[in-house]
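Researcher: Go.
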Amino acid sequence: AVTEQSSRDQDERQQRSRQPHRHRAAADEDRRPMDMPAERPRREVAPSAALAGDERARALGRAVHRVLEWASGAAAATPFAELAAAAAAEFGVAADAVALHGAAMLRHPEGARFFVGPQILWSGNEVAIGDASDVLRIDRLVRLDDVGGPTWWVLDYKLSHAPEDLGPYRTQLLRYRDVVARAQPRERVCC
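Model: Structure:
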C-alpha cells in the first residue's frame, strides 16, 4: 500500500509539472496547478547565473517544450507571453528566449497546422510508446486529416537550426516514426 500511495503521489507531481502554475505571491502560499493562468505571473525568476553552456541550452529546451505543451493544450486561450513567462520561470531561463523559440514553432507556416485547426484529428504531447524494452517519449504526436487521408506526424522539438542534418537526431526521429508505423500499420506515418 505504501508503494501504491507513493506511486500515486509521484504521478500527481508529474501531472502538476505539466500544467502552468501561478507564481507564489507569499512564501506560505501553495503552488497549485491550474488549467489557465488567471493573471500575469507576479514575479519573474531571473535566469540563474549558475547555469552554464549546455545546461542553459537544456533548460531553455525544456522551457520551450513546456510552453508548446501548454499552448497546444488546455491553456491555449491564455496569452502566449504569460505561458512563456511561466515556463521560463519554472526552468530559470529568460522569458523572451522561450517566447521567441516557442512562437517561431507555433507560427511557422509549415508548423502551425500541427498545433491548431480542424485538421487535427488527435494530438498528444510527451507521448510514451514502447519499442522492445525501451519506452520512448515523443514530444508531439499528431494525426492530421491530410489530402491523402489521415496521417500521423511525429514531432521532436529541437532548437538547432537543422537537426535533421545531425545523425543522432535523425536516427532518433526515424526510430520514433518506425515505432508509430508499427502501432498504426494501415495509416501513413511521417516525421
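Model: The chain is about 40% helix and 20% strand.
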